[in-house]
Amino acid sequence: MQIAPSILTADFCELGKLMEELVSEGIDWIHLDVMDGNWVINKTITFGPSLVRSIRQKLGPEIFIDCHLMITNAEETWEQYVDAGVNLVIFHIEAVNDANVLIDNLHSSGCQAGIVLNPDTPASEVLPYLSKLDLVLVMSVVPGKGGQSFMPEMESKIREFRLAINNQIDSGGLPTKLMIDGGIKHYNASLVKSWGIDVAVIGSGIINDNGTVEENLKEITSAL
Question: SS3 of 185, please?
């Protein structure tokens, strides 16, 4: 299972230093949470294309960058994030009018396309698009609400996606990746891996005051 650190809990004044630390520890995937202060429940604004572009310039072309768009107008603004240098745009199935068009637009631009679904959204809302997707992200907390606990009840949804993806691969289809985000720590990382997760987004489990990035990553990789 691959680890994709989220920078949401980072000190933004120290982002350059943090990026260097992560890369030095072997991280090659960075997850960027984009909130517009409107779609997410807590009305938080995080950052936009300008910061994404700075991160790309800092990391260079070797590091994979995705952006999780928790915004109301992904269908109108996705191109700004592609131009800023992301490799993958992940949009909410609950926040778009025509997922097929957005997926096609992203692929036409040379960018990978992913769909994310909230905890209360059934897998059936996303499964019709699976054959066209590079990634599916299952949220194990409600986006935008801080201090939440990991939702183990997402297991059945994740296993449903895992089975569908495996069947898709067996039929010669796209090897869609399966990602989880929300409350992943060292003590449950191996659990979600056993469910069939390919990529785990980890934020405060890596970037916190209880240990260094190096120490926290070692604890997670040891648990895996």
Answer: coil
The pTM of this model reads 0.96
For residue 76, what pLDDT is reported? Answer: 96
Q: Is the pLDDT of residue 146 over 60?
A: no
Active site residue 11: no
Residue 17 scores a pLDDT above 60: yes
**Is 170 one of the annotated active-site residues of the chain?**
no
The range of the structural domain enclosing residue 53 comes to: 2-223
SS3 11: coil
> Which amino acid appears at position 196 of this protein?
G
Q: Report the CATH number that the domain containing residue 161 is assigned in CATH.
A: 3.20.20.70
Determine which one of 36, 66, 134, 181 is catalytic.
181
Closest CA to 90 of 154, 158, 143, 42: 143
How many folded domains does the chain comprise?
Answer: 1
